[in-house]
């Protein structure tokens, strides 16, 4: 705050702190406008996608709203932290965050003293992270933001009820699932068993019919003789083209020990990477492998959006304790990301490969100066791009030699 106060005219540290912590402005209309602007800038009903993900923020003490010992993805372990759930929008390599929710653990939600101390509104109840994610998805659809599919990582993808809710809402998802997820390759028969003996109630619970095969773990299907792999181009990286071997097959996931709705299982092995990824998608049965490939790799840009938020707009750099202050800080982070993306698109009209990092570095050069010309900005971009293209050509030459 001190640094901002030094550079923003007619303000001081106390005024800026009040703007974030105590000022009663509502962040929801700001999110509405952010989503409208994102729709105008990169919205696309055929190629745009939205993604749910979370991020943890390490904290000391127990007084910050929602803080407790819980898993923190940034640290890769359980620690004292707050957790935010975020919704991102991506179209190609364009990406930004468009909504946010603070995860309020159940013990916090049921503690009236701490709720009052941190200003948690009366209508806020306990919701799981997946419920918060679904809430943002449906809110975004209600606002008319165009998107073709929804992406999510294993934490969300392994929850059948969430996939079912999205499917029942007539939306398309692609969800990472763990390697031990079980499926049937063919639809098994199910039945309500016949009653054995004269006593007791008649059976009412449907079960797998006798003699039907057991489901298999998806990792056991990698070398199945009936599975064919296709080499598919996914996207350009900073150093090379990313190609992958994809196997796409129709399966029946296990849900409550019974076969669920037929869905796509995508088995993906990126070239140069030893890891195998597994994903479910409810895309239509006639979806092409190339389309599934583009959907499969789109979550990468959500991860980049979170990196942008932490590295370029200081998402994790805050010292607030209350509910209102946390949401004010996060929505200002989203607004800053939107501003950077707008500049990236504008600068990209003359320098097409302008990156988010380019924009950040340009702002660091021009913000302290009272005047700067377009020619100076363009010169900075072109100098960076010349070095980047040279490095890319060098990598391509080495890859061809190999």
UniProtKB/TrEMBL annotation:
User: Which residue range or ranges hold the Transposase IS701-like DDE domain?
Assistant: 1-221
Give a Pfam family name: DDE_5
Q: Which InterPro entries match?
A: IS701-like, IS701-like_DDE_dom, RNaseH-like_sf
What is the protein name given in its UniProt record?
Transposase
Q: Which organism is it from?
A: Candidatus Methanoperedens nitratireducens
